[in-house]
Amino acid sequence: MEPREIQYVQQSFAGVFARKADLAERFYVHLFTRLPAARAMFRGNFVKQKMMLTAMIASCVRNLDDPRRLEEIGTRLSREHAHLDLGPRETEAAKRALIAALRDVLGDELDPATEFAWASAISRVAGAMPRH
Ligand code: HEM
């Protein structure tokens, strides 16, 4: 990723951070709209789940300029989802859900360049997610 793109993602995430609970809420609304079957996969405490999601996003955003660390995070994420047997369809749905959630929370602040930078950041991390 270009340093400029990393900056777009980090700056916009700083703006979203105070509203990270909204971001997580909107992410799951969009994910379950795209993949209704995914709802039943979640068995744990959903409040905690939302916190884990935003902590994971924060950790990716913080490490965008460190490809090795980012790969480690992607591998961990992949391992944590291994038992779910997810494929490219689910990964794509998650990417779209995250962009849609950012749009809900940031509104016009999510300009095209920032959205493009997020899409490329998500693809990098999701590259380590299952694709079978
Ligand atoms: C942007 C992509 C995604 C991120 C950042 C993400 C993040 C996370 C994190 C941090 C956890 C917690 C792992 C732990 O227990 O420590 C988790 C668990 C989980 N994720 Fe994801 N996830 C993503 C995509 C998906 C997708 C596409 C699905 C399903 C279609 C999914 C289903 C689940 C389920 C079912 C759990 C376990 C919940 C439970 O045991 O109740 N995730 N995810």
Overview of this structure, please?
There is one protein chain. With about 130 residues, the chain is mainly alpha-helical. The chain has helices spanning about 5-15, 20-35, 45-60, 65-80, 90-105, 110-125. It binds protoporphyrin IX containing FE. Belongs to the globin family.
Largest pleated sheet: none
Please tally the β strands and state the result: 0
Helix/strand-derived category reads mainly alpha
Question: CATH homologous superfamily - what is it?
Answer: Globins
Q: Domains counted in the coordinates: how many? A: 1
List of distinct ligands in this structure: protoporphyrin IX containing FE
Low-confidence stretches: none
**Rg result:** 14 Å
Mean pLDDT: 92
Shape: globular
Provide a count of the helices.
6
Strand content: under 5%
CATH class: Mainly Alpha
> End-to-end span in angstroms?
25 Å
By CATH, the topology is: Globin-like
| Helical content band | over 70%
SSE string? HHHHHH
The oligomeric state is single chain
> In the CATH hierarchy, what is the architecture at level 2?
Orthogonal Bundle
In short:
By secondary structure, this protein is an all-alpha fold. The protein contains 6 helices and no strands.
Topology:
Layout (H helix, E strand, L loop, with lengths): L2 H15 L2 H15 L11 H17 L4 H14 L7 H19 L5 H15 L6
Helix pairs in contact: 1-6, 2-3, 2-5
The structure holds protoporphyrin IX containing FE (HEM).
